[in-house]
Amino acid sequence: MSPVSVIIVSYRVRYYIEQCIVSVLRSVPEAQIIVVDNNSADGSVEFLRERFNGITVIANNSNLGFGKANNMALDLVDSPYTLFLNPDTVVAENTIPQCISYLDRTPKAGACGVRMLYADGQFALESRRSVPTPSVCFCHMTGLGRLFPKSHRFAKYHMTFNDKSEDCDIEVISGAFMMVRTDLVRSLGGFDESFFMYGEDIDLSYRILQSGYANRYISAPILHYKGESTVKTSYRYSKVFYDAMLIFYDKHFGRYSHTFSLLVRIAVLSRKLFTFVGQNLLAGRRKLTLEKAPCLFVGKKENFAKAQSLVSSSRHMCSASFVEGCGQPSVDESLLEGSKVVIFDTSVYDYETVLNWMQTTHESGKHIGTGLYYPDTNRLVTEDEILL
Question: What's the whole-number mean pLDDT along residues 237-241?
Fold first, then answer.
C-alpha cells in the first residue's frame, strides 16, 4: 500500500497536469494517483490515460466543482494519507516525504500545507493563513495587515509575523497542496460541496481544527502557477471567489447580529467589484506593455537547439542564451541581468534544485521567471504558455 494517495482535479490544463504528475512520481514513485477531470474540452482524459500507466482517471460529463470532484476520488483512496493537489503545481522531490514524515510522528496533526512559490520565486502568502473570522477579515480588507505585517493582531490573515522559512502551526491550509489523514477527512465528510470553487479548503481546515487536530505549515517548496485554469479577469471569478467567503461566513459565523452581517455583505460586495475592475485594468496594462523577454537556457548543449526552436515560437520569450548546466545552477550575473526567464533542463536539474534557486534568487532582489524544459517530450513549460 502506498503511504499517500494524490487527488488532482483537472480542467483544461493537460500539459500542466502532465508536469504535475511527473513531479509527484519523482517524489513518491509508488503513490496512488487519481485524476478527476471536470469535462475538459482539450482531450485531457485521453491524453492522461495514454501518457501514464497506473493512474486512475475519472471523466465527468460536466464541471462539478472542486469539492465534489475531490470527494468522488476520496472514495477510491487506499492510503493512510490523502494529498489534494492542484494540477498547476510542481512538487519538489523531498516535499511529499517531509509531510508524510511529519504526520507519522505527530498524531495530533490532522493536515499540513507547504511553502508555495510563484514562477518568479516569490513566496505565496496563501501558504499560511488564519481562519477568516470577522475581526481577521476586517484587518485584512482594510489593509491593516499590509501596514503592520509583524503585528499578531493585524496581520493574522496571512500570518506574515512568522518567518516563512520556519515550520509552524497554522489554521488554514491551501487546497493547492493539502495533505490530510484519510480517516479524518472521511469522518468529516470530505469537502463541503456547497462551495463550487474557493473556500472549501478554508472550511475543511476549520473543521479539522474543530475536531481537535492541528494544521501545520511545512517549509518545503512547491511551484504554483497561480491558477492556470482560472480566468481571473472575468466577473465570474470575482463572484465565485467572494460568494464563497459569504458561504463560509453564513455557515460558521451567521450567529452575529443582522446589522453586522449586513456590513460584512457590503464589504464583500465592494471587494468583489474592486477585484474585478482591478484585475481587468492590470490585464489591460500588461497587454499595452507586453514585450518579449530575453531568456537563458541552463542545461545540456545537445538540448539547447531544440529548446531554442521552441522559444522562437513563443509569444513571451526571445533571444535564448546558453549556459552549460551541471550540479548547482551557476549563472553568470551579466547573463542573468539581461534575462527575464531562466529555462532549466529537467534532464540535468531536479525540481528541488530549481525551486531552491528560484527562492534564493527572488530573495536576492531579482524577479526572474522560470521555465522547465523536458527533452523526452520536447515540451517547454512556463507560467505564461506551453511550447511544443
Answer: 57
